[in-house]
Amino acid sequence: MEGNSSKGLIKNGIAISIIVFWGKFLGFAKQAVIAWAFGANGATDIYFAADSFIAMLGQIQGASIGPSVLTQYVRLKEEGKNGTANQVVRAGYFFFPLLAILLIIITILFSREISISLGISYSELQRHELQKFLILLSPVILFTSLTGMAQGVLDGNNQFVPSKLLSLFFSLSIILSVLIFHKHYGILSMLFGFLTGYFLHTVYVTFQTHKIVRYKFVNPFKMREFNVVIRSFIPLVVGNSIVDLGHIIDKIIASSMEEGSVSYLYYSQVVSSDLVNAVIITTIGTILLPQLTRSVVSGMSKKNLVEDLNDILRVVFSLIIMVICLYFSAGEDMIRVFFERGNFNSTASGYVYGIVLCYAVGFGFIAYREILVKLHYAFQDTVAPMVNGILGVVLNLVLSIELSKIIGVYGIAIATTISIAVVGMLLTRSMKKHIGTLPINKITGICIIKLLIIGTVVTITGILFKSMLHVNFVIRMILVSTIIIILYLTLLYFFKERSIFKLARKIQR
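RESULT FIELD:
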């Protein structure tokens, strides 16, 4: 990944990071508006349960379609078969939307049974409301199918930005809808914004894809090259279904606890793992998959591939540890800044902050898992991530049930963190079969140890500094965050962990 390729990756990374940052900023604003308008109660629990289920189905499709189309599309283009690559895309634009429509019909027909499963402790009236939301939100399944196709093609042509604009469309649409309609339509105003945001983004990325691959009908069942896409798609669907099913199970377990527990879990995921996933992990993963696929197809030596992988890991871990320090030191004030107003009170902030810390411990494992999954896909191995994901979800289910009995909703978050760590170890073992060595080399191992020591010192310092400040919590959040970042970067430089600084110099050049 040298020369022009490296510069291209950095430029794309910066562009995506900026867009995702603003998207997440708007996402925080969206959650703040929702918290202000509706708070955390039984009504929001029902909506978020339906939202999570439909988003899960959409995520399964998008996260499975994109990589399966991208890897075959990139391979064919690298082999000089541009025409065949375009035909594969055209076949996909018939096959996957047809599959999505079938899934929508199944969701509508079995919406009552789904609502019973999701709301095991709900009353009949609450289940009816949940069923209504499931039906109204079901078109999102088609939208995510189309955006998954578009992402595979656009990412394959190093056009990473369009697919990452979803959060901008989505957040702006919900903010405007809630502000304008919440007094008259209540929670339905969220639903209007949800559907509108997805629809507008789907239209945009579909138009961008059409500029690259002119849409024509191609029968997917009569195209040999498209069979490769389907063969990789099926394990991806199973793997992603298992992972996302774990999130749904978490919310089902939470629905049996005190009122508001599902909402607390939802808000905490948005402000913690979702944010880190979007800004850091997804940004790197989006760029990484097509680049790794090209490296594998071109026959790059395993030694060089491992070196590139460890360069990425050191940068990611350096950033992740700093983020964890910020959450432990300034996270409580951050949650108050974004959420604590209107119907969202200090009790809700306390619950959310506690859950956020349980998730924050696992940020590094989330990043490691995401990068190794992308590397498996580059080797066209979708089976190992699927099997490891299944084992992780089974572990998550058992731990969520047992730990929630002891420490309530916090146990669900801790169970998620532990299961992700276990999946990371399993992926390490399966990746060794492809590259002939452990994914993490000695240099990166030493780097991680140093980062953990630095992170511990910085976090303790931040907490002590916060305890001495008797100022408004907004000002306190800004001051503590500033001190954390300065001290962390200073200690990185002192301990000669220069990954972030090398990246900064590349960006400057």
